[in-house]
Write a structure and sequence with these properties.
Elements (H helix, E strand, L loop, with lengths): L4 E6 L6 H12 L3 E3 H11 L2 H11 L6 H12 L7 E5 L5 H14 L5 E6 L2 H9 L1 E3 L6 E3 L26 H15 L1 H8 L3 E5 L4 H13 L1
Parallel strand pairs: 1-3, 1-4, 2-3, 4-7
Antiparallel strand pairs: 5-6
Helix pairs in contact: 1-9, 2-3, 2-4, 4-5
């Protein structure tokens, strides 16, 4: 089997991970695998895993790492992920990263490579304050950096865009604190493995994408 691109993007909220994951997926012809999308899809499909997801979500609980890993394994077995995938929203903690490493080894897949997108805090606050999301398909936009073709309307489905509760300024500080506590340590985890590259995330979207691509292909 040819070398796979199994990739995660690291960075604080507002660094552009989701947007760059979409663009990388299109450039390389591999899927962007979003944890949220997998959970919603499994629930709609009504599979055995989907029923477990629905039961947890309906009770107001958090979906366990074991259940998410099972969904990731199921998703990676599809044909479109044969040459790799970009994981979006997972892993978020070191135990999740360890579980993902074990899963990829079990499946005989290449290990994860990580890209850390670095953006100063002031820029992050500006980005988060202008972000808009589609409540139907999850597409993300920004009123300044990545506006929709029609104001406040999703390009994909035409649904009116919204400001997510966690994109309001009063919630941003809490999200940053959560990231620093739970997710930032992933950088050290992948650095120890020699599996992370750092990229400047400031600038035009296409310029940042080019930096990521050059870094990974170097």
């Amino acid at each position: 089997m040819a070398k796979q691109r199994n990739l995660i993007l690291l960075g604080p909220p507002g660094a552009g991970k989701g947007t760059q994951a979409q663009r990388l997926a299109a450039r390389w012809g591999i899927p962007q695998i979003s944890t949220g999308d997998m959970l919603r899809e499994a629930r709609r499909a009504g599979t055995e895993l989907g029923k477990q997801v629905a039961a947890v979500m309906d009770s107001g609980g958090l979906v366990s790492d074991d259940l998410v890993i099972a969904l990731v394994e199921e998703r990676l077995q599809r044909t479109d992920a044969r040459e790799g995938a970009i994981l979006d929203g997972f892993p978020r903690t070191i135990p999740q990263a360890e579980a993902l490493d074990a899963l990829l080894a079990k499946m005989g897949r290449d290990p994860v490579r990580a890209v850390a997108i670095e953006v100063p805090r002031d820029d992050l606050l500006e980005r988060l304050g202008g972000r808009r999301s589609c409540p139907k398909d999850g597409a993300s936009y920004h009123i300044q950096f990545n506006p929709p073709r029609s104001e406040d309307v999703c390009d994909v489905c035409g649904t009116a865009l919204v400001t997510r509760p966690d994109d309001r300024m009063e919630a941003i500080a809490k999200r940053q604190d959560t990231y620093e506590r739970d997710t930032a340590p992933l950088l050290g985890y992948y650095e120890k493995k020699g599996a992370v590259r750092k990229v400047d995330g400031v600038g035009e979207l296409e310029s940042v994408l080019d930096r990521i691509t050059r870094t990974l292909e170097a």
